[in-house]
């Protein structure tokens, strides 16, 4: 596998002076022969043979040493479910015994499938990103987006594993959503970027369900939640236009014109459409009146459902301008699209598009948290395995206290993030089965933006730290480690930046008139009381109580402050909420 002759060998090779036992530069050896040292032909041949043997011995020693070191130090992971002790401990603690028994068997099987089948597909997706062909050989516009076979296989696997279906079949009542989240958590870092279209697919299914699954959308809902790869659909989420992303109220220019049959034709430009190869999408547009006028602001936005392709397999009056050249998530096709009369169906009340789409945003933000926690877990697992194999300064990395302290600090970060994620999906499961109390619904509303903004920042820092633990190898593309970092960087941006979500936290507090904060403080206090009975947790309990006291002081002081002061504090305030709850 490795060449026996190293690149530097030819330029600065050495030979050995057999009498003196000294090494001389190769050019010096050549000069001795050129100057005509008195040797016979036989002696010259003998010296030449000795030099050749020494060269081969040195080369073989170096090549063999390098080969053994690189093979030995490659970090590996086995069954991710079986190796994740925190995950298994959480499930054992919280799930009913019968549910745990079934879930455990399926997750162990799924973990094996991830290692043997899915991870190789993930790397293939990275090596073969989508390709856009605008015209065919005859100059006809076709706007074809080609994805690799591995990407298409990921779609089939997603259906087979019920990665969307599990949450809507509700086989395990309120625990179904948590079970789905666990499978997505295991799948995410091996999905080759396919977790992104799954997030939007889940969000679209949630919106349709919240609308009562009207007759016109039953087929779409059935396909979004299907376990049959031949029927399964993925969905896009076309919100971002030229004026920006989060400010949809002022940034949406797309116009919807009503047709005689009750459908609408959409006209506009979608600046950033993730998973452009999806089967359907939900999108916002402004309905034009008889005079062609549209209501501005959020009150003018309505939500539409549209098929990306028509029955003949042609694009639904959509033109692809180009694919985005992104830093990460290159495995997925993200495009700029022109809607030129795309046929669509109005699915929200007119002017209530933002309210209708909110369910989708909650789900996709939770998926964002899943992706962040999964990426951190993946990087730390590989870092820990590497520490058990890599020798530096005479001993394994795991025997260097400072190195292990660094890994331990990362481990604390990911454990807190994981437990925060599990708390959110537990609350979501209760809400979806009408088992959540009013307090639990308020807490869920607060924790979703808090967890999304916090883990979105966490994952970048942890990924960089973990990459550093591999030394120079962490910087090499073919190790796969830079891919994890690049893909992680989008998680603080997609579905709302840190600042946007921090302001959302403030809106949550204001809209509930302080009830959300009261529930948060009460919940944390109860958890502290439970933990205070464990002696080993006393220092952590004390630190968390001190942080909680500081938060209360801030809230009291903020009551008399101006709105500007609250906005400036929103980011730090949101971080404090996340740290206290994970603590």
From TrEMBL:
Source organism (scientific name): Elachura formosa
Cofactor(s) this protein cannot do without: FAD
A family per Pfam: Acyl-CoA_dh_M
Family: Belongs to the acyl-CoA dehydrogenase family.
Domain Acyl-CoA oxidase/dehydrogenase middle: 237-340
Keywords recorded for this protein, A-Z: FAD, Flavoprotein, Oxidoreductase
GO MF assignments: acyl-CoA dehydrogenase activity
Domain of life according to the entry: Eukaryota
Residue span, Acyl-CoA dehydrogenase/oxidase C-terminal domain: 351-507
Domain Acyl-CoA dehydrogenase 11-like C-terminal: 515-583
InterPro entries linked to this entry: ACDH-11_C, Acyl-CoA_dehydrogenase-like, Acyl-CoA_Oxase/DH_mid-dom, AcylCo_DH-like_C, AcylCo_DH/oxidase_C, AcylCoA_DH/oxidase_NM_dom_sf, AidB_N
Name the UniProt record assigns to this protein: ACD11 dehydrogenase
UniProt-listed SUPFAM superfamilies: Acyl-CoA dehydrogenase C-terminal domain-like, Acyl-CoA dehydrogenase NM domain-like
UniProt domain Adaptive response protein AidB N-terminal: residue ranges: 76-210
């Amino acid at each position: 596998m490795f060449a026996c002759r190293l690149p530097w060998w030819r330029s600065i090779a050495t030979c050995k002076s057999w009498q003196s036992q000294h090494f001389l530069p190769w050019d010096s050896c050549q000069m001795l022969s050129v100057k005509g040292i008195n040797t016979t032909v036989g002696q010259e041949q003998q010296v030449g043979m000795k030099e050749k043997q020494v060269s081969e011995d040195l080369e073989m020693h170096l090549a063999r040493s390098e080969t053994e070191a690189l093979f030995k130090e490659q970090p590996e992971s086995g069954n991710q479910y079986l190796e994740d002790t925190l995950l298994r401990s959480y499930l054992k603690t919280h799930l009913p015994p019968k549910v745990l028994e079934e879930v455990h068997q399926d997750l162990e099987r799924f973990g094996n499938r991830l290692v043997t089948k899915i991870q190789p597909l993930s790397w293939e997706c990275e090596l073969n990103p989508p390709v856009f062909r605008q015209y065919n050989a005859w100059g006809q516009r076709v706007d074809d987006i080609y994805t690799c076979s591995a990407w298409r296989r990921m779609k089939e696997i997603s259906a087979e594993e019920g990665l969307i279906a599990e949450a809507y079949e509700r086989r395990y009542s309120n625990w179904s959503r948590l079970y789905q989240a666990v499978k997505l958590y295991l799948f995410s870092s091996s999905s080759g970027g396919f977790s992104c279209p799954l997030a939007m697919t889940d969000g679209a299914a949630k919106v349709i369900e919240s609308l009562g699954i009207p007759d016109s959308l039953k087929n779409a809902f059935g396909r979004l939640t299907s376990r049959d790869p031949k029927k399964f659909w993925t969905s896009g989420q076309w919100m971002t236009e030229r004026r920006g992303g989060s400010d949809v109220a002022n940034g949406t220019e797309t116009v919807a014109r009503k047709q005689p049959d009750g459908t609408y034709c959409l006209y506009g430009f979608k600046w950033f459409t993730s998973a452009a190869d999806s089967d359907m999408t939900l999108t916002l547009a402004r309905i034009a009146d008889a005079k062609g006028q549209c209501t501005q602001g959020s009150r003018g936005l309505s939500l539409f459902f549209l098929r990306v392709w028509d029955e003949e397999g042609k694009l639904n009056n959509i033109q692809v301008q180009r694919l985005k050249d992104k830093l990460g998530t290159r495995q997925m096709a993200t495009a700029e699209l022109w809607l030129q009369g795309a046929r669509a169906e109005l699915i929200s009340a007119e002017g209530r598009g933002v309210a209708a789409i909110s369910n989708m945003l909650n789900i996709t933000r939770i998926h964002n948290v899943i992706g962040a926690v999964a990426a951190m877990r993946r990087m730390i697992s590989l870092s820990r395995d590497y520490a058990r194999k890599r020798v530096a300064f005479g001993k394994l990395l795991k025997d260097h206290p400072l190195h292990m302290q660094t890994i331990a600090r990362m481990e604390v970060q990911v454990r807190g993030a994981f437990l925060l994620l599990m708390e959110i999906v537990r609350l979501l499961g209760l809400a979806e089965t009408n088992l959540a109390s009013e307090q639990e619904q308020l807490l869920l509303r607060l924790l979703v933006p808090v967890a999304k903004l916090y883990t979105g920042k966490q994952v970048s820092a942890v990924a960089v730290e973990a990459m550093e633990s591999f030394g120079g190898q962490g910087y090499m593309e073919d190790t796969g480690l830079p891919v994890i970092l690049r893909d992680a960087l989008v998680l603080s941006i997609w579905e709302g930046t840190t600042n946007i979500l921090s302001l959302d936290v403030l809106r949550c507090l204001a809209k509930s008139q302080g009830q959300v904060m009261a529930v948060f403080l009460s919940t944390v206090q109860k958890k502290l009381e439970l933990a205070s009975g464990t002696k080993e947790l006393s220092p952590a309990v004390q630190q968390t109580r001190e942080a909680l006291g500081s938060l209360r002081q801030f809230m009291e002081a903020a009551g008399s402050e101006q709105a500007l002061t609250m906005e400036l504090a929103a980011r730090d305030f949101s971080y404090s909420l996340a740290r206290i709850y994970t603590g």
